[in-house]
Amino acid sequence: MDESLLYEADPAYLEHLFKTERYIWLSLSYDMAAVIDLEGLIEEVNTPWTETTGYAMDELMGNYLMEYIHFADREITLAGLQSLVTSDIGSMQFNFRFRCKGGLLKDLNWTIIYSPEHNRYFCVVKDVTERSAGDAMAIAYRDALTGLHNRLFLQDNFPTILERATEEGKEVAVLFLDLDGFKEVNDTLGHKAGDLLLQKVAKRIKRAVDCSDCSVVRLGGDEFVAIGTHTRDEAAMGAKEIVRELSAPFMLGGIDVTIGASVGVSMFPEHGTTPEALLEKADKAMYSVKDTGKNNWTFAVDA
Question: Where is the PAS domain positioned along the sequence (predicted)?
Fold first, then answer.
């Protein structure tokens, strides 16, 4: 047996390579960068942290990230970190208020990648405190991977969409979709291929529901929602087009990959008058499609 293979497989040697690799990454990053373990412990940071937060690097390392997050932002941040581990997608972006030295709060934008190989979160962080309110909000509402709107956008804007539809006497369609076969792509081709697939999926969804007042949102993982002022017939056409678009093969690194989408549709005010009710009805309809063969769509039922 080649002794070099034994040496390369030695855990201590692999750990040395990992530490060298992340040291280089931290050193070369112009932005704040951090390595955080699964318990939320800050293992390593780079020098830009000192200029932005006032903390020396050794003051941050060895402490828990949650200690520095504004109390009101902790729950959503913790949920986001946990979802990276439990879902099929390895990256996400969000903002929260960070308590700097002296108690000053700064709005930091985090792009976080979870590496299952290392059981670590790798974070690139930007200070968006000084940006205009519009710029900061645009970043906060954008999904870093796909460029679509994110869950926060949906939470803040869905009620307004319904209020406007009520005033104008219009219907609103909610299309809740989950990809069929995405986990298999992730498991066989890896997270990078999965991320690329999600980017391509986002473009096709936008193309399928192309209209001036449609909002396409990535909820997380491989779940998406499209919302717009549509009639029932228009919603049906949009759902059919999404299924058709996402059934066509995707090219990933020279490999043809075929997936599908299960889509559930709810209508305002027919199936509900609140964001929660409409999302719940559309979600249930989506799962009914999965239970009856997948890669199709259906309307919610009044139950």
Answer: 35-88
Pairing relation of β-strands 120-127 and 105-115? antiparallel
Q: Which of 222, 233, 256, 302 is catalytic?
A: 222
Residue indicated by tokens 């504004």:
70
Residue type, 222: D
Its pTM stands at: 0.63
Residue 254: burial class (beta carbons within 10 Å; 0-12, 13-18, 19+): exposed
- Is position 222 annotated as part of the catalytic site? yes
Per-residue pLDDT of 143-181, as tens digits, reads 888 989 999 899 999 999 999 999 999 999 999 999 999
Dump pLDDT digits (tens) for 268-284.
999 999 999 999 999 99
DSSP per-residue string spanning 230-260:
--HHHHHHHHHHHHHHHHS-EEETTEEE--E
Q: Where are the domains of the chain?
A: 3-140, 151-299
Instruction: Give me the CATH code for the 151-299 domain, please.
Output: 3.30.70.270
Identical topology for domains 3-140 and 151-299: no
